[in-house]
Amino acid sequence: MPGEVHALVGENGAGKSTLIKILGGLLCPTSGIIQLDGRTVYFNNPLQAQVAGVSVITQEFNLVPQLTVAENIFLGREPKRRSGLVDWDTINRRSTQLLQKVGLKVSPTQRLEYLNVADKQLVEIAKALSREFRYIIMDEPTATLSKVEVERLFTIIRGLRQRGAGVLYITHHLNEIFRIADRVTVLRDGRKIGTRLIKGLTESDAITMIMGRVLKGYSIEHEERDETRAPALSVRNLIVPRALFGISFDLHYGEVLGCAGLVGSGRSVLLHVIFGLLHMSGGEIQVDGRPVSLLNATDAIREGILMLPEDRQVEGIFPDLTVLENLVINAQRADNVFSRFLLDKKAEWEKYDRVRISLSIQAHSPSQMVSTLSGGNQQKVILGRAFMTQSRILLLNEPTRGVDVGTKVEIHELIRQMAHEGRAILVSSSDIPELTKVSDRCLILNAGREGGLLVNKQVTEDNILAHTISQIAVEGCAT
Amino acid sequence: MSTDRDSLIQPAGVRQVPFLILFLRFFENLGLIVMLIIVVVGTSLIEPRFLTVINLINIAITASIMAVVGFGMTFAIVMQGFDLSVGSTQALTACIAASLLAIVPMPVAILGALLIGLLIGVVNGVVIAELNVPPFVATLGMMSIVRGVALLYTKGQSVLIVGHDEYALLNTGKVLGVPAPFIIALGTFVVLFVLLRHTPFGRHVCAVGGNKMAAISAGLKINIITVAVFGLVGMMAALSGVMLSSQLMIVDGTLGVGLELKAIAISVIGGTSLYGGSGNMPGTFLAAFLLAVINGALNILKIPAFYQYLALGALLIFALALDTLRRRLFARILKESS
């Protein structure tokens, strides 16, 4: 609606980003229509959406690092002089005004790549404001902004509303909705759950709508652990610039520690640091009580740490290798798969059979190409790598992304089983029900800081969600 | 007027780019000039004949012909592509210009050669943009096709240009003592520099090379830009073909072998990053001279021509390593300063 701030919320994967990509003309819907001011419109490309008066601030930056700030703002709409050359005076003057409006203190002639993430977000906002629009869509514009910058953005949004523009505001932070929005629409699993007026809506109402139920999820039977033994992995005051600000936790043998947090909260960064793929600037990591230095993945594997990657298509699977080759890719000579230099076929096959049965991988032969397996089975192959090695500490990043419900349950059981066998497992996931099903304890990251540590019975969906999306402390939670 | 206002409305405490980066960026072109001077001074100390007018003019002509191709190649690299077919295109257009001279007036012959180059480039661009073939593969195939056409067109024979003194003037002519090829290269440089830096088209080429998704979502017509850029590369290769034929006055289908390597080398040595998004046209011009001077030095020091291949390859790899190093260094400086 014109003159309204409409918030769009939902869990990760609820379909928010897809929706705004369609509205912005980057994706085409397979069915259904969009109506703008009562007229049905079709956007086949971003230009048509812009001409129709829809301006989008996307989550991934649509900026060109090598161009200047001003060139980025006016990309595709450069003011020209009569000679056909770019009118630099106009471009830089208007950019300066826009930058002032959003409160960004950089020169418009500066190259964009020299800006930090928050500054780039502000440039993206300035770019959207520079267009002629009646509707503006903002996809998590505050994810990278500081408090002061958020305040300034809210002032701009209120100004837009007064001018009669319609604002569609997507966010994960519930408190922002209550501060700025007039109405809110909740999405879940690609469906619209409902639209409510903000007036009269409470935060717990909103959380219930987002999650889809009030009930607490069931918890697993938690086993008693020998807490006297030195923790398998001990992280102290871990600092990574711009990502993690002092994270500490212990991970014990036989335990599954969940790690929850929104996109950008530092979950992935944390796992990458422990696996030696990213470097910390401060803090300490101990394995079995010994401080270790993890400069690369080889170091981590030597210490018995193994990370199973998040995106199986990009980081995980070697699609042109066979199932077997994918399984043993991490194996060391110590794991008895190699006989000196050559691969020991017999040992490999024996191991393969054991793993295939215990993971119930649906493959008809170890020499089958892994790309012919279903997504869920590919994911199991990746999990199987852990079985193939003697790694004692497992880092799982989104272990069930893109797998069906049945396989999900199987994978959850596998994770529990591996913990039962004495491994220490850290599961990072954006899927909150999953964390409640597998974890003994749950670490919550909120914008790179510890948002809390839930123990045993406290690990419920409500508690995790509350800690990740709002700053309000929930009673009865140890931190 | 507006510039005055600019400085007034600029908010106080504008965050600056780290000084070190500005310094290093400034040093990029300066480094080339320094290297150029070192080679020239070093060679002329060993062999004073290096500084004779004839020798310097020869070097300038070689550099100019190379630079013209390099300017086009810079556009392609800015767009995160490159064109391997420029050498074959140079050969074909040189032969076409030579044989057309026998039947039509000179301007028509030159125009014809340029149009053939444009056509080859446009075909490259269409294959890349519409069929989604990577530039490497598309232009590699085109390199072989055009070479074949050039050899078929000349039936493997040489084409001799007889009696066209006005055509030879394109090479031997001088304006105020400056050789004509250099003037052609300088003119091309000015036009293409302005095109890249100061027109919406040039900025859009940078945008496509820097972040394709951003370019698409800004509503840029990527396919048209791609075709235009490769058309330009083809036309520049054709211009170099015309210049080369006026220098040699006898041409055949085997000219220009390895030209693509030289053109890519001078663009990269000149400071245009293979990662795309920005181009350094003055750098390309300077690097063309550096390469010509090095070749000239090797010639006059009677070092076998085979070593020129070694020098070119080493220089190219060095420049690429430097490019990556520079990006890592800049990223590090930025991270530490923020």
Q: Which secondary-structure class do the elements of chain B indicate? A: mainly alpha
Whole-Å distance between the termini of chain B?
34 Å
**Outline type of chain B:** globular
Sequence of strands across the biggest β-sheet of chain A: 4-5-6-1-7-8
Please provide the ordered H/E string of secondary-structure elements of chain B: HHHHHHEHEEHHHHEHHH
Share of β-strand residues of chain B: under 5%
Helix content of chain A: 25-40%
Strand content of chain A: 15-25%
Number of helices of chain B: 14
Rounded radius of gyration of chain B (Å): 21 Å
Q: Treating each run of at least 4 consecutive H or I residues as one helix, how many helices of chain A?
A: 17
Number of strands of chain A: 20
Category by helix and strand content of chain A: alpha/beta
Overall mean pLDDT of chain A stands at: 75
Q: What is the end-to-end distance of chain A?
A: 42 Å
Average residue-wise pLDDT of chain B: 87
3D structure, described in words:
The complex is a heterodimer of chains A (479) and B (338). By secondary structure, chain A is an alpha/beta fold. Chain A is 34% helix and 20% strand. Chain A contains 17 helices and 20 strands. In chain A, a hairpin with a 2-residue loop joins β7 and β8. Mean pLDDT of chain A is 75; it is low at 214-220 and 471-479. The longest helix of chain B is centred in the C-terminal third of the chain and has 32 residues, at 306-337. The two termini of chain B are 34 Å apart. Chain B contains 14 helices and 4 strands. In chain B, the strands form 2 sheets. A two-stranded antiparallel ribbon of chain B has the order 1-4. Chain B has a two-stranded antiparallel ribbon with strand order 2-3. Chain B has a domain at 5-19 and 63-282. Chain B is globular, with a radius of gyration of 21 Å. Chain B is mainly alpha-helical and 338 residues long. The interface between A and B is large, with 43 and 40 residues.
